[in-house]
Amino acid sequence: MSTRNTLAACVLALAFGVGTAHAQSAPSPAPKLGKAITENDIKDWDIAVLPNGTGLPAGQGTPQEGAKIFAERCSACHGDSAKGGVAPFYPALVGGAPLTNGIETQKTIANYYAYATTIFDYIRRAMPFNASRTLTDNETYALTAYILSLNKLIGENDVMDAKTLPQVKMPNRDNFILPYPDRI
Amino acid sequence: MGISKRRGRTPSLDAVAGNGLINRRALLGQGIALAGAMGVGGATGAAAEPLKDEAWSLEVGATTPPLQTPSRFEKGVVRALSNPKGEFRTSHARTPHQLLNGAITPNPLHFTIIHAGIPDIDPAQHKLVIHGMVKQPLEFTLETLSRYPLITRTHFVECAGNSAGMFSNEPLQAPAGLIHGLVSCAEWTGVPLSVLLDEAGIDPAAKWLVAEGADAHFLDRSVPVKKAYDDAMVAIYQNGERLMPGNGYPMRLLLPGYQGNMNVKFLRRLKAVDQPSYTYFESKNYSQILPGGKTWRFHFLMEVKSFITYPSFGHHLKEPGFYAISGVAYSGTGRIAKVLVSADGGKSWGEAALQTPIHDKAFTRFVMPWRWDGQPAVLLSRAWDEAGNAQPLRAEFVAQRGETKKPVATPLAFPNQHYNSITSWGVDSKGEIKHVYA
Predict the structure, then answer these.
(1) Is the separation of the CB atoms in B416 and A103 below 8 Å?
(2) Which of A65, B185, B327, B419 is deepest in the core (most CB within 10 A)?
(3) Residue B233: beta bridge partners?
(4) Element (DSSP H or E) covering residue B64
(5) What would the pLDDT profile of B60-100 be if each residue is shown by its tens digit?
(6) CA nearest B414 in A: which residue?
(7) CB–CB of B324/B115 below 8 Å?
């Protein structure tokens, strides 16, 4: 390193207060402009759900309750009994061909999704399309239960809540491969 | 290479590959020699009308506007829309690559995909929070992020569904911008995500970030912390100006070389967690079915790829003679190292000239001089990146990743994801160009 570069490095280090002599007490070079907040400040935003159930709210719903809500809030696009509206934009939420039919097989809840928690998460954040975040948590559980029941992934009377939903076994879960495991 | 060296050298005009491909060194400052060899020197031109001043030169021109827009003669240079009426479904706007050049996509033409409309975000009110498995949850604003030492990088962003029509068992007839228009390249400026995560004090057990936008569907994706600490940034400028609304204004996640959908726009929240969320988009759309029925998830990487933008579908070669074949190459694993071009359907290949500087995970424009003899030709490009990855030939790609059983009816369809194989343009003896499989 030239003398000039060494000097520049010293000046830079001093400017940021990270000279070795002051390493213990000097402020970090990080700008630290983030405002400290608490999880409580974020709780209304914190709608992410994990497959193990982390993030699922209190509340519950049944397929029967979901059927009524679906008819009012969902069937205009997704069709009666979730059989689908105008494909491919409003796909069926029930059924699904075997994935061995070909690479262009329509991916559905029954033939594709790995976790049932995805259904709750997506309804809560994005549905109905033009009125997201207007369903209550109970309604969201009920719609999730209804769709799972239509697909025979749960029983007609099964109650979905924070405990039962993560336990639903989805048929395609073990069929996935990671093309790039070292990137995770 | 110094000028003095170059001046003393006679470029070889030998064909480097079949059907008229010319050594790319012919492009290096030897235009006169090249023109002479091509037989298109000006000296042989027939006498034309004497040149006169045109009308626009005979009066004072227009007042200078505060914000420039392209010439009225360029009105056709626009993006192709999938949902022009704004129906309740996803809207795609595709970059018209067949009308562009260079390696940077102009902001108004950068591709966008929006699932629930473009939010009208007030930058003074927008907030980004980092929380979850961190020592101290933090809130940032555009104003505070703007005070950080910003980094500037040129990167492409590509939708994992770009070029999906290429999975069709028969070639779709559509312009390059309709087939490949869900990729664009810009210079992005922002704050390295690692800086913000360090300030929040991320827990070493946190392996994922759930990144979420402030759009009406709160689009979210799970992002490996590994990528966040590699080269991710929170971008707040696009080609020197604030982000376009459709590209994430006022801030977006930028994950160079990863599926466009993961580069969450309108970024409002990063939650550090110990497992992926399996969000809708990573559970369904942006994973894929393989021949035989197995499925891939967390593919992330947009692999090495290139396509010719000129000449391509919809262009018309008016006469035999000299043309410069041109296109873009890019890779999610690094810089482009080499692009080969063929004019005979892949029988022989010549190395194209790469325009510099060659950025990491960015468009590199390639140029290949070509003398068209007026006979049918099939033009292909194939790229390699610095990691040694080769763009797969179509036969090997289809063998691994499959193709549809029936022809895909529209370039707006998404029969599958992550197409990065070859595109071939067939020139007929009239100079018309179609999409073909070679």
Answers:
(1) yes
(2) B327
(3) B192, B254
(4) none
(5) 999 999 999 999 999 999 999 999 999 999 999 999 999 99
(6) A104
(7) no
Task: Give the one of A100, A114, A183 whose C-beta lies nearest to B292's C-beta.
Answer: A100
Q: How confident is the model at residue B48 (pLDDT cuts 50, 70, 90)?
A: confident
- Half-sphere exposure (Cβ direction) of B402: Cα atoms closer than 13 Å: 21
Touching check for A85 and chain B: CB below 8 Å?
no
State whether B283 and A113 contact (CB < 8 Å).
yes
Residue with the two structure tokens 């030239």: A2
Question: Mind spelling out the 3-state secondary structure of B125-137?
Answer: CCCEEEEECECCC
Q: Encoding tokens for residue B436?
A: 């073909």
Q: Which two tokens stand for residue B112?
A: 């966008």
Q: Is the dihedral of CA B115, B120, B124, B125 positive or negative?
A: negative
CB pairs below 8 Å between A and B: how many?
183
- CB count within 10 Å of CB A3 equals 7
- Per-residue pLDDT reduced to its tens digit, B171-202: 999 999 999 999 999 999 999 999 999 999 99
Q: Which residues contact A119 (CB under 8 A, 6 or more apart)?
A: A109, A113, A144, A147, A148
Radius of gyration of chain A (CA): 25
CB contact at 8 A, B130 and B137: yes
Strand pairing report for B295-296 and A176-177: parallel
Query: To the nearest 10°, the Cα dihedral for B222, B224, B227, B228?
Result: 70
Q: Determine which helix (DSSP H) or strand (DSSP E) holds A154, and give its type and residue range.
A: none
ipTM for the complex shown: 0.90
Q: Is the peptide bond before B311 cis (omega within 30 degrees of 0)?
A: yes
DSSP track, B67-121 = S----GGGTT--PEES-TT--SS-EEEE--GGG--SS---GGGS-EEESS-----
Q: Rounded to an integer, what distance in angstroms lies between the CA atom of residue B25 and that of residue B309?
A: 21
Q: What are the phi and psi torsion angles at B15 (to 5°)?
A: -60, 135
Measured CA to CA, the distance from residue B309 to residue B425 in angstroms comes to 10
Which of B34-43, B183-192, B416-425 is the least confident region? B34-43
Q: Looking up tokens 């010719």, which residue turns up? A: B308
**CA gyration radius for chain B?**
24
Give the pairing of strands B128-132 and B267-273: parallel
Cα B273 to the center of its chain, rounded Å: 32
Q: What is the pTM assigned to this prediction?
A: 0.91
- Asked if A176 lies within 8 A of B295 by C-beta distance, the reply is yes
Nearest to A118 among B115, B216, B279 (CB): B279
Beta carbons of B103 and B187 less than 8 angstroms apart: no
